[in-house]
Design a protein that fits this description.
Elements (H helix, E strand, L loop, with lengths): L7 E8 L6 E6 L9 E2 L2 E3 L6 H13 L9 E8 L8 E8 L14 E7 L12
Parallel strand pairs: 1-6
Antiparallel strand pairs: 1-4, 2-3, 2-7, 5-6
Length: 128
């Protein structure tokens, strides 16, 4: 019998401001992709939907409150095992609405947050 895929799901947030910029975060002290820019993201926990994970992670990482109806699923990606973390399923959400002012709520994991034009990302972004 073939073994079923056990891909780890994760959710990613592309918050977009009125200038069309997205918020990115510089990773540090996490043990994964440290020194690279990424967006607010995190693993989907057991019995949690990707939207619920995104709402939770946004509150934890950038201190904003999201509503499920304001999340637009813009991309789903399967990443076959490329390192010790295994296969991944990534859910990317865009939003133009949130409550609160985005801030670095986890300075021990994030060195900096920055609004950038999506076509002008830094060179050192996570490969996915």
């Amino acid at each position: 019998m073939k073994e079923r895929n056990k891909a780890v799901p994760a959710s990613y947030l592309l918050p977009e401001n009125d200038n069309g910029e997205i918020l990115i975060m510089l990773r540090q002290n996490t043990g994964y992709q440290d020194g690279n820019w990424n967006v607010c993201s995190g693993h989907v926990e057991a019995s949690e939907l990707p939207t619920e994970a995104m709402i939770r992670e946004a509150k934890e990482e950038i201190g904003v409150t999201l509503h499920k109806d304001d999340l637009e699923l813009v991309h789903v990606m399967h990443r076959p095992k490329h390192d010790v973390t295994g296969d991944r399923i990534d859910f990317f959400f865009r939003t133009k609405r949130w409550q609160g002012e985005p801030a670095n709520s986890e300075p021990h994991k994030c060195a900096e947050i920055r609004w950038v034009v999506p076509t002008q990302l830094p060179d050192n972004v996570t490969p996915h």
